[in-house]
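@here heads up, posting the sequence + SMILES for the pyridoxal-5'-phosphate run so it's all in one place. Ping me if the SMILES looks off, I pulled it from an old spreadsheet.
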Amino acid sequence: MSLKVARRGQIPPFIVMDVMRSAFARQASGQDVLHMEVGEPGTPAPAAARAAAAAALDGRPIGYTEAMGIPALRQAIAAHYQRTQGVAVDPQRICVTAGSSAGFILGFSAAFDPGDRVGLAAPGYPCYRHILTALGLTAVSIPVGRETRFQPTPETIEAAEARDGKAIDGLIVASPSNPTGSMLLPEEFGRLATWCRARAIRLVSDEIYHGITYERPAVSILALPRRGLAGAGADGAAGGAADGAIVVNSFSKYFSMTGWRLGWLVLPPELIRPVECLAQNYFISAPTLSQIAAVAAFDATEELEGHVRTYARNRAILWDALKRAGIADVAPPDGAFYLYADVGHLTNDSLDFCRRLLAETGIAITPGLDFDPERGSRTIRFSFAGPTAVVEQVAERFERWVRR
Ligand SMILES: Cc1ncc(COP(=O)(O)O)c(C=O)c1O
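bot reply: prediction finished. Complex structure tokens:
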């Protein structure tokens, strides 16, 4: 008799990781690959962070930390909000996590019960959907498009609720978003947050791409009250629209530290202790060496801003190449390091399109199906976080391949 396998693990793959595996297999067989599939910087952690980690490897024990993270890092993260968003955040509200990925597990577990319905934009980051499903929650797809800069609005949520005949209990927003890079403009963010607060919908704001923006800086949900964009909740006494929101962030993207597996949450008061207890039990603590390194990462602004300038150059090169290749329907890439393009005039099977592109040119990109199971068969995503030399080669090869 075969043994039971739980339904929890029967979730779809994170397709981009499968693409990366195929790309590495191709590389191992001696063929070249131009990596534009995974959203990770091609640069190392900031020099100051690496130096701090090296100094900590002097024989001292690298033990567990307290579950919420080392005080120096929680204070440095709080100071970062004061500097970048002009808001005071109590370090007690910050929980340091093993990447934002662990932050989602902690935040979702603390805020929602099995069966709760959590809305998310489609296209959107696939792991939200899959983590929610694994935790026994219902991921509610909110189809969005160019009309709303690929961001959810009260109207698109109401349409999804009408479709399902059920309201949502929570909403995940990402600004800038993955895969589109598009942002919620501050007024729209305030309107959305106010609408959610009036309906007791808990907001989760994924701010992992903050710092990587091209037209205007991204606004944290924590800064909406300071800007006068978070009116009082429906019940008045409950306070402003940002109250109750969970903020998720990470050292992976702006700070160029993907493999160090470090992120953080900013929690509303009622979730601090539940998240602390969950973190103690699930993870004990986030990686200690990474926490020590990350404190120093906040002093590396010049180096990190240099990376953002590289992304801006890469974005321009790739965007021009897509236009020359006849691909003009690209989501507005306000931030992050992605171009999400509609290639419906070239294919109705983005998986096959990406497979052929890799086999025939060595260019690895991600099919839109990863981000939008319903409409992603006509879209593709390029990550331009790597070196400019790679982006230039991709631009040239991709254009030639499409025109062949
Ligand atoms: C929108 C978004 N959130 C979260 C993550 C997870 O990042 P990490 O766990 O490395 O912090 C990613 C990774 O690509 C992402 O794109």
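MO: The two ends are 54 Å apart (CA to CA).
MO: One more: The CA atoms of residues 190 and 229 lie 5 Å apart.
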